[in-house]
Fold this sequence. Notes:
The protein is built from 13 helices and 21 strands. It is α/β, with parallel strands linked by helices. It starts with a helix and ends in a 12-residue tail after the last strand.
Amino acid sequence: MNEASNDQYAGITVLLTVIVTIILVVTTQAIQSNSANVAVDSTAIRDQTHQDPENAVIDQNQEISESIDPVNLALEDAPRLRFEAEEGVMHGTFAADSAYGYSGNGYVTDFTDDSDYVNINITVEEPGLYQLYIGYRAPNGYKETDLYVNEQPFGQVKLEESSSFEEVKATRVLLEKGETDITIGRGWGYYDLDYIDLQRLDESKLAYAPTTEKLSNPNASPEAVVLMNYLNEQAGKAVLSGQQLYSQIANIEHITGKRPAVVGFDFIDYSPTRVSYGAQSTEVEAALDWHKQGGIVSFLWHWNAPTGLIDEPGKEWWRGFYTDSVTFDLAAALADKTSEEYALLLSDMDVIAQQIKILQLNDVPVLFRPLHEADGGWFWWGASGPEAAKELYQIMYDRFVNEHQLHNLIWVWNSIDPAWYPGDDVVDIVSYDSYPVAGDHSPIVNIYDELVELTGGKKYIAMMENGSIPDPAAMEAYGAHWGLFITWSDHFTTDGLHNSNEYLQYVYQHPRVITLEELPDWGSNP
């Protein structure tokens, strides 16, 4: 085909794309303007596509949430039970009393070697759920400890830097009447442990599961509204199964006989600096295929920096989303909006927007999780701190929603730290990526509680990445209402350590776990 023919062909293609987009917008507006408010009902889920998106997402826990404080779950007038750390059994650690402000007769220190721990035997007269508090001192910076209950791993506890003894609301534990061993392992080490406290919880409050009453985008597509409504409806009743990487689905089906409800996809190889090195992607095509099967689509973006790739051994171009492999400075780019670096940020977003438009034109709602794990700092979008990351997120939200008119996105934020939260007005779902020690199937209830506190219980809560899958029965028992999980790819489902075949079968066959086979018949939407 000659150059003139190419130009004619391109012009026709652009014209057709514009026409299709106009038709889609007009149709959507017509649906919205003629719609009525309808409460969520799984038997009439297809009818919900004709709701007004501004009001269609209904909080299924509205009556509960009006009478329950989702943050304060303590039983009224429940006393604190204190157990001093220095009275426990120490291994590699020892009791000390040289610091000031401790409880009891001292504290436990010298958590330095991997095998160091203190085991504290506790006794309760009433079985049930208890809030666990830890008294500590961490003068050497932020730390994390390993927690075990009766020798079983039970997640990590975060200890903020403190030169004096402080208390942290660690997690909640389900205890039988009588004795239980609580073990604090080294974790990051170099902290002092003072005591643990227990306080009985009001289990009647645990039925509350946060939901998202309205999507942040008032023009959200009918398909996005239907999907959010469905997630709300299942919150607290069930957990949706998920798997990262489309090619992993066959393996899950081979092991369990079922397929996950959610599949995680990645825009990574659409990043322009990866394309310049020859990267190619078919993720959008795979997502369209999964959508046709009735599955739910989730996307993240391992965003290769728009410039400044170091590209040397150990810092190769394909590691360009890692802070240590680029020289790109986000704060500097945002500070000068006339700079080439800032322009490249926008042009990269525009490239991804075109891929999302393909999904929108095919009526695919997307759980979209940009700038994930920003607070970790290991990705360049988090390396400049919370203010820069929040500004970049807000710029992307505005550019995608208002300039590119992308209304099929349900926006997922991926940090528990309030300092990093970009705001309720641009977030639909709050989430966490969970990677406990291999085989730790505890419900990660401490992180769940932090996400509840982050928004006051006003946003749906998801585990958008995980290694070991939390036990669905434990999630119910502890009131940790993770709406969904998405197990990361490769060894997390094949090494037999994080999730054995037997455990995967247990999870996928569990009555509280929704798989592809249990999803509703979306009809033509989504």
